[in-house]
Write a structure and sequence with these properties.
single chain, alpha/beta, Pyrimidine Nucleoside Phosphorylase, Chain A, domain 2, four-stranded antiparallel sheet, 16 helices, globular, binds calcium ion, thymidine phosphorylase activity, Pyrmidine_PPas_bac/euk, glycosyltransferase
Length: 431
């Protein structure tokens, strides 16, 4: 088999066989196929697309290109949840304990934040003592005993995807549905999921700006999952404004605690119930979404959800006392209130710009090797659609730096106050 023939075949719009796809993925991850041939194939796929069978074969080939997590020693159906990335997206911190409270096993491998999007591992590390580096035996044992454990990425998962994603980034081939869908799904499969719930974000703060694009991606991933024997569901949700009110690591832990008690912001609460219901149905714990939702609401109301979070924090070495004393979380030195500039209705809170402002406060990474400040971030006092008056507090910056000029400039551009505005639709579709 020759790589040049595979490139030519895809360039001409033909389907690649499974053997050809495996030849490419294995050869590329072993450095036997050069970047220029991989780049040519990525561009051919960008223009010629892949059919469902090719997408599934590409996903499995990448999933099997490195280490895979074996979760077979955990009883029950392991449901993983993936978000395509957002600003102030506190859902994983809430969903883990919430669905685990119903007995659903949650064995989650999570990432760190990059750019304007945050990561669950960073958020958990704002809890003093919390250990995200469990051995795989301890990880499995925690889930079997307590239904929930979260670890950082370890081992060499999907090396083919890592290499191909970096190449796509510099060859203008990132935004291709078959390549994005197989990239995301390969990582979920390598991480051991039996079933997958996807939160595909759309809007200014997201990868997919329109509902149509988000739907295409969601449908592509659901079809891949179902073809490779992992039941998959998806939600298309709004990321035009940040989710909830808090953005920043420790601030989002506090927001998750409120939400687990049933006292969280309306949008975060609703999205957690929607995604959680899909997880519970896929895990076989409820017959339909309505029943699942009622079970989740009951677990919030009677305290099982927050108690599961408390046990989870303690099991992984964290200081669980801060659940009742959130003032013990890392606190920034300065709290600076930004006021509403004029009377009207909040028409825009651009998620990408606010996410970048929070990154400039030190809460997010500009590059993979940046160190971050777990205490900093912002808390919104108003959301899109809220009526406000000049001089009201619009948001509070939590900062450890003196110079806030750049942050305030970004916030100024992110916020629009006008005469009329409706709150955005939170859940566009279930796929
Ligand atoms: N996120 C991924 O993990 N892969 C892509 O290709 C795009 C976004
Ligand atoms: Ca939030």
């Amino acid at each position: 088999m020759r790589m040049v023939d595979i490139i030519e075949k895809k360039r001409n719009g033909e389907s690649l066989s499974r053997e050809e796809i495996e030849f490419f993925v294995n050869g590329y991850s072993r450095d036997e196929i050069p970047d220029y041939q991989a780049a040519a194939l990525a561009m051919a796929i960008y223009f010629r697309d892949m059919d469902d069978r090719e997408r599934a074969d590409l996903t499995l080939a990448m999933a099997n290109s490195g280490d895979t997590l074996d979760l077979s020693e955990i009883e029950g159906i392991k449901v993983d949840k993936h978000s395509t990335g957002g600003v102030g997206d506190t859902t994983t911190l809430v969903l883990g304990p919430l669905v685990a409270a119903l007995g659903v096993p949650v064995a989650k491998m999570s990432g760190r934040g990059l750019g304007h999007t945050g990561g669950t591992i960073d958020k958990l590390e704002s809890i003093a003592g919390f250990n995200v580096e469990l051995s795989s035996a301890d990880f499995i044992d925690q889930v079997n005993r307590h239904r929930l454990a979260v670890i950082g990425q370890s081992g060499d998962l999907t090396p083919a995807d890592k290499k191909l994603y970096a190449l796509r980034d510099v060859t203008a081939t990132v935004d291709s549905i078959p390549l994005i869908a197989s990239s995301i799904m390969s990582k979920k499969i390598a991480a051991g999921a039996d079933a997958i719930v996807l939160d595909v974000k759309c809007g200014e703060g997201a990868f997919m700006k329109s509902v149509d694009d988000a739907r295409h991606l969601a449908e592509a991933m659901v079809r891949i999952g179902n073809q490779v024997g992992r039941r998959t569901m998806a939600v298309i949700s709004d990321m035009s404004q940040p989710l909830g009110r808090a953005i920043g690591n420790a601030l989002e832990v506090e927001e998750a605690i409120q939400t687990l008690r049933g006292e969280g912001p309306a949008d975060l609460h609703e999205l957690c119930l929607t995604l959680g219901a899909q997880m519970v149905v896929l895990a076989g714990r409820a017959a339909d979404l309505d029943e699942a939702r009622a079970l989740l609401e009951a677990a919030m109301a009677d305290g099982r959800a927050i108690e599961t979070f408390r046990r989870f924090v303690a099991n992984q070495g964290g200081d669980a006392s801060l659940i009742d004393h959130p003032e013990r979380l890392p606190r920034a030195r300065r709290q600076v209130t930004v006021e509403v500039p004029r009377d009207g209705v909040v028409a825009r809170l651009d998620a990408a710009l606010l996410g970048t402002a929070v990154m400039k406060l030190g809460a997010g990474r500009e590059t993979k090797t940046s160190t971050i400040d777990l205490a900093t971030g912002m808390v919104l006092n108003a959301k899109v659609g809220d009526r406000v008056r000049a001089g009201d507090p619009l948001l509070v910056l939590h900062a450890n730096q003196d110079d806030l000029d750049e942050v305030l400039e970004l916030v100024g551009r992110a916020v629009v106050i006008s005469e009329h505005a409706e709150p955005p639709v939170l859940i566009h579709e279930l796929v």
